[in-house]
Amino acid sequence: MSIDHENIGIIAGGGQFPLLFIDAAHKAGRKVMVIAHKGETDERVASAADDVCWVKLGQLGKVISWFKAKGVGETVFLGAITKTKIFRDVMPDLKALTLWNKIDSKQDDAILRAVATALEKENIAVRESTMYLQHLLFPEGVLSKKKPSKEQRRDIEFGWQHARAIGRLDIGQCVVVRNCTVVAVEAIEGTDAAIRRGGKLAREKAVVVKVKKPGQDFRFDLPATGVITIQTLAEVKGAVLAVEAGQALIFDREEMMRAADRAGIVVVGVTENPDGTLTY
């Protein structure tokens, strides 16, 4: 294999993250080779890429051989894959099946780390997902017009500790809280589904806390928020979205904040200090 150092690969899921990366990479003088997942990746990603290969979830051997043919020596994981599809829509080839059988835990981090290791054994380095896109990291402080009340701050602090705990177990990245009671924990269904479930139980004024997992690998699966997160919270008359600053992604920030202010939702970027206290 001859590596073309102008070429960078993307293993793309859904959402706009791959599109934003392609634009930034092109501005940096790179050509972008995209592995697109059928039923997940936006067609616009394929149109924006310099070349594209459509695969089904689990076709790891095809990914590796195509990247090698295109001279790709480094890649990034970008965009979401609907996690429930691992129970119904995976079409593993021999390479993926061999890898799958070696993984003791089938949780997110374990799977992604195993795939990254397999790629790197083939001399395809896996880079941080924020490469070229540092400006998308969630900022610290109150982003909304409305500020958190004393009671909401207490819920944020309570939820923070519980979100950290589920992160250590690689279950999910967010919890939904009301009056210092956890009403929902994110698992395989994703953040929006957890917000809907927790919001219905809370009835109103739910506080959503979303943090990175301890030891989060910046190469994949960073927490992400956007307009849809706010719309979902508004549907259940939720009150607060608190996200770990510098460790999560924020998409369409201006539109997101307009939606939050219309709904009267507090949005804050939170930093955990070495002594465990929170700043925002």
TrEMBL record:
Domain LpxI C-terminal positions: 139-268
Pfam families tied to this protein: LpxI_C, LpxI_N
Record domain LpxI N-terminal: where: 7-136
InterPro entries: LpxI, LpxI_C, LpxI_C_sf, LpxI_N
Designated name of the protein: DUF1009 domain-containing protein
